[in-house]
Amino acid sequence: MSVFTSAALHLRSSSRRLGWVAACALAVALTGCADSNKQAGSGIGGYSMDWRNATDPIGAFVNRLRNGSGLIIGDINHPLAAQALTHLGIRYSWGGKSPETGFDCSGLVLYSAQQSLGLKLPPRADDIARYGDIIKRNDLAVGDLVFFNTLGTRYSHVGVYLGQDKFVHSPSRGGVVRIEDMNLRYWTMRYTGARRLSPPTEVATR
Deepest of 20, 160, 165, 172, by most Cβ within 10 A of its Cβ? Predict the structure, then answer.
């Protein structure tokens, strides 16, 4: 075998190895992007809008709450809504019912209701839906509870309405307590109703 032939074979073999390494690197990179996207979209349905980013509408909404500009700040005077907003950024924790342990969706609501209204609610979203007055979407007011079908059952997710079609909730694993827009297609398709709590709370007729 000539020196040139041997060199050519060696080059071809090296090219194959480089191609294989490049393919593996690309696969890893794509996997990383998928994980990154999953983390960034860590809310229910993979949707997330970072409430700390003032360039997005939800971030702008929170900024108005914080700095007092705009009209919305005057509307957040409901004790339940105000209490829920104090937990923005706290991590999601399945079964979590306090700021120390983290919150799941119903944990955020029951903790906020107990702290602000003195109400002791059950620990599951579908059980919470049995309490309070049934409210039509057009009649939503700050502090109402909004429910969604996210797990195949009618009242599997709950949040607290803030006005202007926004609500605060604890989304899902990897997420934090944050504000969402109810007009997004994901939430519009899954919205199942609302309740208004007032002590003493009566069981609602579904």
Answer: 160
Q: Is 197 exposed, middle or buried (0-12, 13-18, 19+ CB in 10 A)?
A: buried
24 catalytically annotated: no
Cis peptide before 199 (omega within 30 of 0): no
Region 107-136: mean pLDDT is 95
In the three-class reduction of DSSP (H, G, I as helix; E, B as strand; rest coil), residue 22 is classed as helix
Integer angstrom CA distances of residue 84 from 8, 143, 161, 203: 69, 9, 10, 22
Query: What are the structure tokens assigned to 183, written together?
Result: 């007009």
The contacts of residue 17 (CB under 8 Å, 6+ apart) are none
- Separation between Cα atoms, residue 106 and residue 69, nearest integer Å: 31
Q: Return phi, psi of residue 10, to 5°.
A: -60, -40
Q: Which member of 10, 78, 87, 157 is catalytic?
A: 157
Q: How many CB atoms lie within 10 A of CB 42?
A: 18
Active site residue 10: no
Q: Report pLDDT digits (tens) over 115-124.
A: 999 999 999 9
Cβ neighbours, 10 Å, residue 117 = 18
pTM (global) more than 0.70: no
Q: What is the DSSP letter of 176?
A: B
